[in-house]
Design a protein that fits this description.
about 300 residues, alpha/beta, TIM Barrel, 6-stranded parallel beta sheet, two-stranded parallel sheet, globular, dihydropteroate synthase activity, folate biosynthesis, DHP_synth_dom, EC 2.5.1.15, DHP_synth-like
C-alpha cells in the first residue's frame, strides 16, 4: 500500500504532493514501483497535528481519488470522516482506512456498512493533538489485542461484514518507541489471535528514528528511514501480514518478494521431504509384504 499524503504538513514528506496533479503523479509512480494499491489521505495524523475542516479534506482527497481510479489504480481512502469516505467511495475508492476505527465519527460505520467495502480498523486511543498522553500500557500487546477486539465487535454490530475487515495495530498512535517495537515483535500473535487480515503501517515512524539515532541521540530525518521501514516490511511479511503501508515502495516490495520466495522454498523443501518419506514408507511396506510372502512359502 503506497501512501499519498495530500497535505501541507505531513511528517514524512512536508507537503510535496499537496497539489492534485502532483499527488496523482505520485500515486502512479508508487504503482510503477510495486504498490498494489494507493492510500490517499488529506489530513495529517502526526502527533500534535490539529484537524483539517471537512470541506478542505474533501477538496484535497476526492479529485485525487477520482483521477487515480480513472488511470486504473486501486485506491483506498485514509480518513476519519464518514462524509469523506462516502465521497471517495463514490469517486471509485475500494477500501476505507480509518485510523480511528470508526470512533472519530459515529456515521463512519453505517457508511462503510452500506458501501460494502473493506474497512481497516486501527487501534486508536484519541486524536493526534493529545495522543502521546495516552501512551500508557502495562502489557501493550495484550491491551492492544483487547481494545481491538472490543472495537471490532462494535463495528460488526454496526453492520460491517466481518469478511470485509482488516486490522491495524496502530504503530505510532498513542505508543512510545518501546511500545511500537513490542508490537512489531508481537505481530504473529496479533494476527493469529485476531484472525483477520492485518495491515502494518511502520513507514518512517518515530520509533524507527529512535532505533537509528546517532551517538547524540538525534534521529535521522523521516525520509532517511526507508531502509528501516523495509526491514519491518520483511518482518511483517514473515508473520503473514496482508499488507504494509509505506511511503517509498520499491525497497519494501523487494523485501516482501524475498520473504515470499524463502517461504515458497521452505514449503517446497517440506513437500519434497514428505514425498521422500512417503516413498521410503511405501518401499518398507512392499519389502515387508514380500518378506511375509516368502516366509509363508517356506512353511
Amino acid at each position: 500500500m503506497g501512501v499519498v499524503n495530500v497535505t501541507p504538513d505531513s511528517f514524512s514528506d512536508g507537503g510535496r504532493w499537496f497539489d492534485t496533479e502532483l499527488a496523482v503523479k505520485r500515486g502512479l509512480d508508487l504503482i510503477a514501483g510495486g504498490a498494489d494499491l494507493v492510500d490517499v489521505g488529506g489530513e495529517s495524523t502526526r502527533p500534535g497535528a490539529s484537524r483539517v475542516d471537512e470541506g478542505e479534506e474533501l477538496r484535497r482527497v476526492v479529485p485525487v481519488v477520482r483521477e487515480l481510479v480513472a488511470e486504473g489504480a486501486v485506491v483506498s481512502v485514509d480518513t476519519m470522516r464518514a462524509s469523506v469516505a462516502e465521497a471517495a467511495v463514490e469517486a471509485g475508492a475500494t477500501l476505507v482506512n480509518d485510523v480511528s476505527g470508526g470512533l472519530a465519527d459515529p456515521a463512519m460505520v453505517p457508511v462503510v456498512a452500506t458501501a460494502r467495502v473493506p474497512f481497516v480498523v486501527m487501534h486508536w486511543r484519541g486524536f493526534s493533538a493529545d495522543m502521546n498522553n495516552r501512551a500508557v500500557y502495562g502489557d501493550v500487546v495484550g491491551e492492544v489485542l483487547a481494545e481491538l477486539r472490543q472495537r471490532l465487535d462494535a463495528v460488526v454490530e454496526g453492520g460491517v461484514d466481518p469478511d470485509r475487515l482488516v486490522v491495524d495495530p496502530g504503530l505510532g498512535f498513542a505508543k512510545t518507541a518501546a511500545h511500537d517495537l513490542a508490537l512489531v515483535a508481537g505481530l504473529g500473535r496479533l494476527r493469529r489471535e485476531l484472525g483477520l487480515p492485518m495491515l502494518v503501517a511502520a513507514s518512517r515512524k518515530r520509533f524507527l528514528g529512535r532505533v537509528l539515532a546517532g551517538p547524540e541521540g538525534e534521529p535521522p530525518p523521516a525520509r532517511e528511514r526507508d531502509a528501516a521501514t523495509a526491514a519491518v516490511s520483511a518482518l511483517a511479511a514473515r508473520e503473514g501480514a496482508w499488507a504494509v503501508r509505506v511511503h517509498e515502495v520499491r525497497a519494501s516490495a523487494d523485501a516482501v518478494r524475498v520473504v515470499r520466495a524463502v517461504q515458497e522454498a521452505a514449503e517446497s523443501s517440506e513437500s519434497s521431504e514428505s514425498e521422500e518419506m512417503a516413498e521410503v514408507a511405501e518401499a518398507a511396506r512392499v519389502a515387508g509384504a514380500a518378506g511375509a510372502s516368502g516366509a509363508e512359502g517356506g512353511m
